[in-house]
């Protein structure tokens, strides 16, 4: 009988302690949601990604030139002297920008404004010059 008197308080104390270790109760939802009330899925164009661009759009600067797709690999800011294109070959100006699809026609681009000058350097990379914002983007052929 002594064992059962001692066992019952220990058992009750164990149940109380173990019930306190559980996860907190979730608040009950007071409204029902429909498909249109739910947040947009990550692949919707109005959701931003870590790059800052909406998902569903091209995330990198790209230019198509001479049958090759070029993707941005690096860039630098122009110094006080600006850009001197004498040591580079002028390819042309960007003719259209499409941020939903990768470019596939000569001098089409994504993330590069129409009219932006494009040059080729000695190693075959493209240089995209944005003098208004003061930078040069270097684009290498896509793998």
Produce a short descriptive summary.
With 143 residues, the protein is an alpha+beta fold. It has 1 helix and 8 strands.
Q: Count of helices?
A: 1
User: Quick one: how many beta strands?
Assistant: 8
Helix and strand run = HEEEEEEEE
Largest sheet: 8 strands, mixed
What is the helix fraction of residues, given as a range? 10-25%
- Kindly name the structural category: alpha+beta
Query: What value does the average pLDDT take?
Result: 75
What does the radius of gyration come to? 30 Å
Strand order of the largest sheet: 3-6-7-8-2-1-5-4
Intertermini distance = 81 Å
Question: Which blocks of ≥5 consecutive residues have pLDDT under 50?
Answer: 30-45
- Strand content is 25-35%
Overall 3D form: rod-shaped
Q: How would the blueprint of this fold be written?
A:
Elements: H1 2-20, E1 62-65, E2 68-77, E3 89-93, E4 96-97, E5 108-110, E6 117-120, E7 126-130, E8 135-141
Parallel strand pairs: 4-5
Antiparallel strand pairs: 1-2, 1-5, 2-8, 3-6, 6-7, 7-8
């Amino acid at each position: 009988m002594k064992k059962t008197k001692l066992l019952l308080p220990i058992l009750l104390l164990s149940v109380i302690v173990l019930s306190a270790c559980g996860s907190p109760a979730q608040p009950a939802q007071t409204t029902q949601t429909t498909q249109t009330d739910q947040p947009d899925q990550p692949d919707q164009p109005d959701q931003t990604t870590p790059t800052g661009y909406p998902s569903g759009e091209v995330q990198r600067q790209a230019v198509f030139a001479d049958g090759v797709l070029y993707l941005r690999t690096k860039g630098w800011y122009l110094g006080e002297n600006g850009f001197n294109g004498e040591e580079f070959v002028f390819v042309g100006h960007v003719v259209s920008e499409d941020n939903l699809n990768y470019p596939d026609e000569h001098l089409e681009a994504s993330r590069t404004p129409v009219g932006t000058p494009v040059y080729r350097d000695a190693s075959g990379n493209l240089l995209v010059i944005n003098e208004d914002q003061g930078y040069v983007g270097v684009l290498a052929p896509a793998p």
